[in-house]
UniProtKB/TrEMBL annotation:
Active site residues per record: C160
Protein name: Thymidylate synthase
Source species: Pseudidiomarina woesei
Enzyme class: transferase
Role noted for this protein: Catalyzes the reductive methylation of 2'-deoxyuridine-5'-monophosphate (dUMP) to 2'-deoxythymidine-5'-monophosphate (dTMP) while utilizing 5,10-methylenetetrahydrofolate (mTHF) as the methyl donor and reductant in the reaction, yielding dihydrofolate (DHF) as a by-product. This enzymatic reaction provides an intracellular de novo source of dTMP, an essential precursor for DNA biosynthesis.
Spans traversing the lipid bilayer: none
GO BP annotations, alphabetical order: dTMP biosynthetic process; dTTP biosynthetic process; methylation
Catalytic activity: dUMP + (6R)-5,10-methylene-5,6,7,8-tetrahydrofolate = 7,8-dihydrofolate + dTMP
Keywords: Cytoplasm, Methyltransferase, Nucleotide biosynthesis, Transferase
Amino acid sequence: MKQYLDLCQRIVDDGVWVANERTGKRCLTVINADLEYRVDRNEFPLITTRKSYWKAAIAELLGYIRGYSNAADFRALGTPTWDANANLNEAWLANPHRKGEDDMGRVYGVQGRAWAKPDGGVVDQLRKVVDNLSRGLDDRGEIISFYNPGEFHMGCLRPCMHTHNFSLLGDTLYLTSYQRSCDVPLGLNFNQVQVFTFLALMAQITGHKAGVAYHKIVNAHIYEDQLELMRDVQLKREPFPAPQLEINPDIKSLEDLEAWVTMDDFAVHNYQHHPAIQYPFSV
Ligand SMILES: Nc1nc(=O)c2c([nH]1)NC[C@@H]1CN(c3ccc(C(=O)N[C@@H](CCC(=O)O)C(=O)O)cc3)CN21
Ligand SMILES: O=c1ccn([C@H]2C[C@H](O)[C@@H](COP(=O)(O)O)O2)c(=O)[nH]1
């Protein structure tokens, strides 16, 4: 929690105002942040200085793992977080590649599970990583990348957390995740949960111990209409100790994640938090 608050304070103290054309808003911005999550100690990096809707964050991750491309599928899993980008962004609404209500296009999980090959067929990046790790192999390229510039025009948003790189040291699995753009009040609250949970789940289904997850962020920002709430409310609060994440031990394979897992297979223990803060969301 301290590293999150330090980053928020750093943006407030040292951030530079940058105009963002896509949203028409200004963002207070810093470049480069390195966060670490101790999955080995089960220190779940949930924000405690406001109520965090962690189930929605895990639902998003599960949707990416399943390769979803439709906001309705995300809603069915338990998160409305893709509704606005799928249905309220003018540029995407006018895009001829959009296949109707709720379509997100070729974003995130579509690239992770079905990256189109120029010579036909698709690459299932996640399947390859799971198969290698399951037999104890780290080929130094256990990478899942959602960043496909050749298909940006076919999706509602470029991926923000764009690359997940897994590593094996002995029987311990590590994850390094890269994020190009981070809405610190809203997005990071979710992304921390996702990086932690992704490592915990991958360790569980490939039969390894979970180690540390490293989260590398390039552009970390607070939108102008979020600043007051962050500076004058959230940053004035004292954090509570980290809670713990419990994952149903019956989840043993990628097929389990695809077929039957729901948010009921996740529980958080000892989550003490301050009251919710509703931050404005920029589409
Ligand atoms: N501007 C922006 N920020 C983001 O963080 C973001 C995007 N756009 N677009 C793509 C996804 C969608 N994400 C989202 C979208 C909404 C919330 C949100 O409204 N969170 C609320 C409540 C969530 C709930 O009730 O389930 C929160 O208080 O955390 C969070 C992340 C993260 N990403
Ligand atoms: O997982 C996510 C997804 C999105 N965001 C934020 C970061 C930015 O504020 C917007 C995306 O806008 P771009 O113009 O494409 O950078 O969404 C996030 O923090 N985490």
